[in-house]
Amino acid sequence: MKIDLNSDMGEGFGPYRLCDDEAMMKLVSSANIACGFHGGDPDTMGRMVRLAKLNGVGIGAHPGLPDRPGFGRREIQFPADELRQQMLYQLGALMAIAKAERVTVSHISFHAAMGNMVNRDPVLADLMMDAIATVDASLVVFVTHGSEIQQAARRARLKTLALFLADRAYDAGGKLVARGLPGAVIKGEAAVRARVRQFLLEGTVETIDGATIVMPARSILVHSDTPGALELAGIVRGEIEATGAALAPAAELAD
């Protein structure tokens, strides 16, 4: 079995960093690099691309809303085409930086509020996926299983890779529990370890209310801004290796 381990990275700016990106890059197989709107900046993006290249990690764009003070987690209403242009602006910037380093961007993963807005609107989802396919039809789109983004990506004939979020709670419908609710973010080492082991061995996850649901995913995400993110990523990687699975970047696993 092969599985991807990914993290949202480079989400600081200037001298400010959320986590030890250098150490995290040694643990993951794919990196979702912030593209300058909710976090990141040109210098940070370049540093992330070079780190990914050095460590053989798949490079992905992580576009978000233009809301650095809110870390891209506040929904801000824009016309659909303006959201499309914001996404393309960020994707294009990372693609240019990667090309200058003689590597390519292989996937795209929406950040926070931008992803939530696209997932609620089939028309917007189609608009976004068609734009991505026009820029580069080989890009893999990170999705949650059964989401509008997944369905729109398939209509646009884009490859997708379903995510399991090791540090976030799910409800009985398979949706993420809102961050503001108690228990939404999983912080304990034992809890994360148990969730990842259950996912890897059984393909299921326990929901916030104690139910068990199927989790059809091939990639595990650890948020770099979660407290103790580096330790959590190490735990996840350790569980992957303990079950005999092999790490592989998103481009190798997408369908």
Describe this protein's structure.
The protein has 255 residues and is of the alpha/beta class. The chain contains 9 helices and 10 strands. It has one domain: TIM Barrel (Alpha-Beta Barrel), CATH 3.20.20. The strands form 2 sheets. A 7-stranded parallel beta barrel has the order 1-2-3-4-5-6-9, surrounded by 4 helices. Helix 1 links the parallel strand 1 and strand 2. The model has no long low-confidence stretch (mean pLDDT 96). It catalyses: 5-oxo-L-proline + ATP + 2 H2O = L-glutamate + ADP + phosphate + H(+).
Strand order of the largest sheet: 1-2-3-4-5-6-9
Return the average pLDDT rounded to an integer: 96
How much of the residues is beta strand, in percent? Answer: 15-25%
Q: Number of DSSP strands?
A: 10
Q: Structurally, how many domains make up the residues?
A: 1
Radius of gyration over all CA atoms, rounded: 17 Å
Query: Can you name the CATH architecture?
Result: Alpha-Beta Barrel
Number of helical regions:
9
SSE sequence, one letter per element: EHEHEHEHHEHEHEEEHEH
Largest beta-sheet characterization: 7 strands, parallel, barrel
* Ends apart, CA distance between termini: 15 Å
pLDDT under 50 segments (min length 5)? none
CATH topology: TIM Barrel
Shape: globular
Helix content: 40-55%
What's the CATH superfamily, by name?
Glycoside hydrolase/deacetylase
Structural class: alpha/beta
The CATH class designation is Alpha Beta
InterPro entries: Glyco_hydro/deAcase_b/a-brl, LamB/YcsF/PxpA-like
Function: Catalyzes the cleavage of 5-oxoproline to form L-glutamate coupled to the hydrolysis of ATP to ADP and inorganic phosphate.
Enzyme class: hydrolase
Subunit structure: Forms a complex composed of PxpA, PxpB and PxpC.
